[in-house]
Amino acid sequence: MPEYIFELPDPFPLESGAALAGAHVAYRTWGQLNAARDNAVWVCHALTANADVLDWWPGLFGPGCFFDPADWFIVCANVLGSCYGSTSPLSPDPATSQPRYQAFPLLTVRDLAAAHEALRQELGLARIHTLIGGSLGGQQALEWAVAQPDVFDHLVVIATNARHSAWGIAFNEAQRLAIEADPTYHANEPGGGGEGLRAARAIALLSYRSYDAYATTQTEADDDPRLRDYRASTYQRYQGDKLVARFDAYSYVALSRAMDTHHLGRHRGGVPAALAAVRARTLVLGITSDVLFPVSEQRALAQGIAGALYIELGSIFGHDGFLLETVQIAQRLERFYAPALAQ
């Protein structure tokens, strides 16, 4: 499907009080709105994903999947700060015609949701049947559902939280330290920080997967002490190389900092008051082996949102289970939608 560009109001106001000049959002759509205009599904993506949800969430979105474009009008927008088409640290500053790099302004999750809201209005979608996201995408979905409670009929959030934890911020800072230790990052040039980004990805994987996942997939077949390239070692390097080939260190820093800001209760009287504002029928999914967003965080979400359904997914894949356990997620979605379908 083609990718579209939506120009945001210029300059786009940010929660920090700053403004982002020349801001735009890249997005894609699949399927068609039905006559009642009540079949829209909006997907909020995670840290290093893009607007092509059929590519990065296969098994859940696509022909023959739970969210089939033959039945649903699917929208996925690339977040501000990302290097996949929306305004990012690599985008030219209208005032200088040069990329902003490290001078790119601080974004918050609230800003990312505000950009989605502006696009929703541009698309003329008065209501969204389902708003769904995992991880950073779940944080965006929650923020948006709190800010615009009358827009969404259903909310599905997976492996996410109401406020980013000190544990999560510490992991993000460790990754940023790795990037900042790369001298090329400070050169403010395309490709800067690549080696640091490779190391950052290796750090991130330790929070995305689990002990059992590594034990199952990366344990050596023999115990030769002369081994230098252990499977776990080569796996870390391989994943680092993959990210460097497709992502950007400046965007990674900008978006990890945005994730750190996530706090539904900021200026709203606290998290309980914010969650109480959600009116969408809500499904909260936790992953039993997730060490980055432990299930206690999802239980707290479900307890705070009136009528929310909470279900745990059994998985060895840790936080990445929200991308990999699509069969389980689809089964839980069928259970979630069953009461409405029976009417």
Task: Give a short summary of the structure.
This protein is α/β, with parallel strands linked by helices and 343 residues long.
Instruction: Compute the separation of the termini in Å.
Output: 34 Å
Low-confidence stretches: none
Determine the strand fraction and express it as a percent band. Answer: 5-15%
Q: How much helical structure, as a percent, in the residues?
A: 25-40%
* Separate helix tally: 12
Q: What features would you describe in this structure?
A:
It is found in: Cytoplasm. Pathway: Amino-acid biosynthesis; L-methionine biosynthesis via de novo pathway; O-acetyl-L-homoserine from L-homoserine: step 1/1. Its main location: cytoplasm. One of its GO terms (cellular component) is cytoplasm. The protein has 343 residues and is of the alpha/beta class. The protein folds into 2 domains: 4-164 and 261-341, Rossmann fold (3-Layer(aba) Sandwich), CATH 3.40.50; 168-258, Rna Polymerase Sigma Factor, Chain: A. The chain is 39% helix and 15% strand. It has 12 helices and 10 strands. The protein has helices at residues 53-56, 109-123, 136-147, 166-180, 194-208, 211-218, 231-246, 249-260, 271-276, 295-304, 321-324, 326-341, and strands at 4-7, 12-13, 19-20, 24-30, 40-44, 73-77, 128-134, 152-158, 281-287, 309-313. An 8-stranded mixed β-sheet has the order 1-4-6-5-7-8-9-10, with helices on both faces. It has a two-stranded antiparallel ribbon with strand order 2-3. Helix 2 (109-123) packs across helix 3 (136-147) and helix 4 (166-180) packs antiparallel against helix 5. The radius of gyration is 20 Å and the shape is globular.
